Amino acid sequence: MTFHNKAHKNQIAKNVLMPGDPDRARFVAENFLENADLVSQIRGIPCYTGTFKGKAISVMASGMGGPSIGIYSWELYNTYDVDNIVRIGTCGGFKEEQEVGDLIGVLTASTDSNWAHQYHLDGMLSPVCSPSLLNVISNTVQKLGYPYHVGMILSSDMFSDYHAQGSDSWKKWAAMGALAQDMETYALYCNALRAKKHAFSLLTMTDNCVTGKSFQDEERMEGNRRMIITALQALCQ
Which end of the chain is least crowded, N or C, by CB within 10 Å? Predict the structure, then answer.
C-alpha cells in the first residue's frame, strides 16, 4: 500500500489502463472487464482489476495533470511492479483533417511543464513512448480500421489557455508539428523511462481547435469506445 493506493501488491495487474477521469475508469470496468473488483479508491481515484479475454487487466484513474498522473504511475511502476501503462485519455486536436473521435498515438510529448527539472539534466528531455507498445497498438488500430494519427503532442499545465475561446497559443505548437494537446503524457513517459518500464498514450480527439468541432456532452463517454477497445485488445496479444 501507499498513501495514494490501498490495493495490495497482488491486486493490481501487470498491465494497466489509465484514464484521467474516475468515471471513465468505472466505465471501462463495468462495460469491458469481467469480474472487475474495486481494489482502491483513495481520494476518489478508483482502481479496478478484472480480466479481458482471460488476461488480468487493471484500470486506474490518474486525475488531471502531470503531477497527478506522475504520482499514481510512479507508484504503479515501482511499488506494484506494473510493466505497462496505457494512458487512455482525451485531447484537443491541432490539425484540420482530424475528425472528432479519431485516435492519436503519441510518439513523444513536448511540454511547458517543469516536471523534468527533478532529474537535474544538462539539457532538455524529450521522453518517448515504449516502442513495443507503439508497435502492438498501431497494429491493432490498423486491424480494427479506426482513424489514427501518430506523432508529437503538447502536454501542457495550462488547459484553459490552450482551449480558451480566442486563444491562439496552440498555433505555435501546431506550427512545430504537434498533433494535439493533453496534460498528462509528458510526466507518464518520464516516469516510464526512469523506472525502465513501458508507457503509451492513446488519445481520443474530442475537440478540434482548428474547426471548432467537438463531442457533445452526451458523447464524451461513449465516444471513447474505439480507444478502449484498441488498448484492451493490444494488451491481450
Answer: C
